Structure prediction request, 873 residues.
Amino acid sequence: MVTTDTTRVTNGSNGTAADPGYAERKNRGRLQEIAAGKWFPPVVDHQLEREEPVLTVNNFCLWYGNAQALFDVSMKVPKSKVTALIGPSGCGKSTLLRSVNRLNDLVDSVRISGEMNLYEDSIYAKGVDVIELRKRMGMVAQKPNPFPMSIYENVIYPLRIDGVRDRRILDEVCETSLRGAALWDEAKDRLHQSALGLSGGQQQRLCVARAIASEPEMLLMDEPCSALDPIATGKIEDLIDQLRGEYTILIVTHNMQQAARVSDYTAFMYLGQLVEYGATASLFKKPQLKETEDYISGRFG
Amino acid sequence: MASLGQPMVWLAGGMLALCSVMIIALILLVVVRGMATFWPGAITSYHTVNGQVITGEVTRSSTYEPRPELIDTLPQDAQERARQLLAANDGLAERVLVRTGNYELDNSHFTWVSNYTIERMEKPEWFVVMERLTWGRFYGVPTAFYVDGELVADTPADVWREFERHHGDIRKRWQQRRILESKDIGKINHQQERARLELRGAEIAAQQARIDYGVRSEQFNQAQRTLEQQQQRFAQGEAEFERRYADIREEIVALNQENDRYQIRLMTVNGQEKSMGMAEVVRAYPANQLSLLGRMGVYLDRWQEFLLGDPREANSEGGVFPAIFGTVVMTLIMVVFVVPFGVLAALYLREYAKAGPLVSVIRIAVNNLAGVPSIVYGVFGLGFFCYLVGGSIDQLFFSEKLPNPTFGTGGILWASLTLALLTLPVVIVATEEALAAVPGSMREGSYASGASKWQTIQRIVLPRAMPGIMTGMILAMARGAGEVAPLMLVGAVKLAPELPIDSIAPFVHLERSFMHLGFHIYDLGFQSQNSEAAIPMVFTTTLLLILIITLLNVGAIWLRNRLRRKFVVSAV
Prediction:
């Protein structure tokens, strides 16, 4: 991918405006330059400024050891909307997502700079209680990760670790969460059986139920459908659709169609930089940058 | 090219087959010989050319090359025949080992009989095998039965009938006597000992008060008064104990007198006569008259005694119940110590410690611990647990018993702790592997739900790793239950009349020394006076030890599989 770019750009430098491929090659040059280490400010849709942000990211950089994975990322995630992060593999979208609830802290070699705020509260300030912070967000992982316990216990896990013992509250939360995750009808008769006996798609919806059990301010989804078959994927997408408006959702996806289907806003990332960020409808129909169009139309990446 | 791997398949398969054959051979040897020990054989009389008659059970046979001088000792006419026999067999002779018993009469339990010395052999009808409490077995023909000194039967058949009629009751009375002696008198002894210790404690307190506060101090007077009270109470108690003791003695004497009324008289093959009390006889049977069912009865009866009875005859006869009990209790105590200890250590190593050179060094050290000879653990256990820790406990809590040690010597607690130390690396390594196998996604899911590290470990990691931890426990149990060398130093003894758990308060006596099957095997095989009789018992005891370890393991594996079904099965 990058190698072909290089040859084209070398050719393009000699080209003229009359050359039909010139504009394309010129724009490709921007991604090429990102690869070479140059930083460009992201192109952000004005529409976003009218939204109330839940999460604000300011000049966020992240290193795994000596390798930098995120370069001065700044973006606002709007409230009660679904925001999708797209981009080729290794562009840092999962890293960015995992930075939001500080799961990257578990990796010893990670360093960061810049800041993130959940509403007014800094995520990375000194003395932040990470556990309290994580309780304000729910997360759904790439592969379904139900715990080795019953369905019931899985759903109310966030409450259990908070020490909630009132049976009435637990039952109620379990039901509302499972209903919210569109799993209640399938699971209500086997609440006390092991969650590991569910199918993959059911397990993933169980994880969604667990993520919304503590009524988080934000839902983080890291490619929630990548391990699922098309039918299960469809169910999860329907579920995201239902949760829209109620929860602020930040979703990482590999699948452009999925981003187009489920999200209100889409951010395109490339090699650790945010390239373009805007309303999904306009971004997919008429992106401001040529390279975004190339990526979403499948001509690149 | 594809066929290049073929020799490796054969090599690998061959190695496995070799392993299996060796293991199966070993187990087969133990099972066959262990099972055969208690089978009652027939009695054979060998009439030799020297005019001797050797009567008893044939235990084994062998082929050997007799020295020519041996032949010269035979009578003239027999020499020629013996030489011919030997010449026909390339100078080799067959011989059988006959268990002749009657040790108090002829000073041997066994005699070799060579085939060239045998003139004729027969199966005498009325030879009876008597297993006795002392002196080993007796082989003889019953000739007379006396009740209260009066002859009531004088033919073998009649005597045998009388014997069978009375023997059961007599043994019951004997059992009763033993219970009186061990349980009831034992209880009095314990109470007496406790009273003595209380008195001694008061004495020590008084002495201490004199040293600390002086003779004229109030404290000393106080202590002195307590001491006097204790002395009075002790004297009263002593009288009470005396009385109860006399009562029990009386009961025992009555039982003995009743038993002494019956006497049986037997004649050995050499015509010597021997009278014996019936209580002495554990079991008797006319070997050559037994049907297969009768033999089966004797066989099962011996197994029952073996499994449930106390040892006798310097452990070479009787049961091994105290050893079974000691082995199981010690192994369980060991598990109780080693599993929490090892799991916590592994948790720190795997979950909390930052990977680095120090952790690597510790991990290597733990693995190396598994290679330290077990006797070294025994020495450490003796020095650290028995003398240092146990000695300190004695100083603090059992000072009135000194200089007799309570915890300051070998005991089942120290043995369990020593073995816990020995098996610790097994548990740590297995636990670490189990923890490492817990998927990272599960931990992340827990952290993302807002769980702290400990909550994640406690609710997600540990349950998921539990089957692996159980595997470590099973390995540790198998290792610990079969270990002998360190136990010799820290509490396993040849004979421990009192079990570590009994009916005398406080019921669990972890300071007591105990019997252990592994040590029992060593003791039987190498320390026994009557080694020919003990060797079959070695196999039987080994069989039993293997069975017990298998049983413990099967229990643990069952538990593990249950946990595995609960925690690990996944649809994805």
